[in-house]
Specification:
- It is a single chain.
- Helix content is 58%, strand content 2%.
- It contains 14 helices and two strands; from the N terminus they run E-E-H-H-H-H-H-H-H-H-H-H-H-H-H-H.
- A two-stranded antiparallel sheet has the order 1-2.
- A hairpin with a 4-residue loop joins strand 1 and strand 2.
- The radius of gyration is 23 Å and the shape is globular.
- It starts with 20 loop residues before the first strand and ends with a helix.
- Keywords: Heme, Iron, Membrane, Metal-binding, Oxidoreductase, Transmembrane, Transmembrane helix.
- It is an enzyme of class 1 (oxidoreductase).
- InterPro entries: Haem_Oase, Haem_Oase-like, Haem_Oase-like_multi-hlx, Haem_oxygenase_CS.
Length: 320
């Protein structure tokens, strides 16, 4: 059954005890002490490190080796199998029950279908838990058994990432690996039970923020989320090392009409939408970069020439 999530706008007045934070385009008001805000702020550096590792940068540029993508899918299968097994065991736990969405979120079965696409019907005999993935899986089982509240960190880190940046990776992989447009091999990225990714993420963050947690427990969840990013980096590093031994030709992302396809020279930093986002954040490098890219386009050149002409006219009139 498809889940449709809608969110009612909340008051955007200043809240007592903290500054008002507006999220997305809605007037959703959050406090800095809300768990979702603490996670977003507290994992910023870890998130940046993960995004800037060589494996992820190559992925975003469409430089993907099919063998590495297959191995990465296998690693995810073992991670999600562990996480969803522990979530299932603790589904009645007071800190897990509010964010228990198996139909909407669970990825194990989707990953199994992807592995069958890449390896065939006997895929289970061809994949195994790698040395780089084992510490991640072991940690998930450890917290699930001893400290279930920390599963909130692993769930947040994985699922919210899948619903955000994961959708960009899906488009890049589909074109770079020339995967079928019908979605075979990419079931992991398809959340058929969620109507609106944005709406569901708002619901999920809201549920997290309503958990009855003291300040110390919130900090432990943030620390565990950073630890989860570290485990992800271990998996990426292992894939990078394997990639160095594989002579397979890198796939070409090609050209098309999506966000991933407009990257010039395969460099995401040259994408005008990415530059615009960074410019809006006040980064001077990207402000200049955005201006230079716009000036390369004929319509922008014509508009600039018109502005210069108007300015010159006003200047001449003023001097006269």
């Amino acid at each position: 059954m498809e889940t449709k999530v809608t969110s009612e706008p909340k008051s955007n007045g200043v809240l007592n005890g903290g500054a008002r934070i507006v999220v997305d385009d809605d007037d959703e008001v959050l406090r800095p002490t809300d768990l979702s805000e603490m996670l977003a702020e507290g994992t910023k550096e870890s998130h940046d490190r993960a995004e800037n590792c060589q494996f992820v940068k190559d992925f975003l540029r469409g430089r993907i080796k099919r063998e590495l993508f297959k191995r990465g899918t296998a690693a995810l299968y073992f991670v999600y199998s562990a996480m969803e097994e522990e979530i299932e065991k603790n589904k009645d736990h007071p800190h897990i029950a509010p964010i228990y969405f198996p139909t909407e979120l669970h990825r194990r079965e989707a990953l199994a279908r992807d592995l069958e696409h890449f390896y065939g019907e006997d895929w289970e005999s061809q994949v195994s838990l790698s040395a780089g993935t084992k510490p991640y899986v072991d940690r998930i089982h450890e917290v699930g058994g001893k400290d279930p509240v920390l599963l909130v960190a692993h769930s947040y880190t994985r699922y919210m990432g899948d619903l955000s940046g994961g959708q960009i990776l899906k488009k890049v992989a589909q074109r770079a690996l020339k995967l079928p447009s019908t979605g075979e091999g990419l079931n992991f990225y398809q959340f058929e039970g969620i109507h609106s990714h944005k709406g569901f993420k708002q619901l999920y963050r809201s549920r997290m923020n309503e958990l009855e947690l003291d300040a110390d427990t919130k900090e432990r969840i943030v620390d565990e989320s950073n630890r989860a990013f570290g485990f992800n980096m271990m998996v990426f590093t292992e894939l990078e090392e394997i990639g160095e031994t594989i002579k397979e030709e890198v796939q070409d992302a090609g050209l098309g009409h999506s966000h991933a396809e407009i990257m010039q020279g395969g460099d995401i930093n040259k994408c005008p939408y990415y530059a615009a986002k960074m410019a809006a954040s006040g980064n001077p490098t990207y402000v200049c970069q955005l201006a230079m890219m716009l000036l390369r386009h004929p319509p922008c050149q014509v508009a600039l020439a018109a502005c210069v002409a108007v300015l010159a006219g006003f200047t001449a009139w003023y001097l006269v």
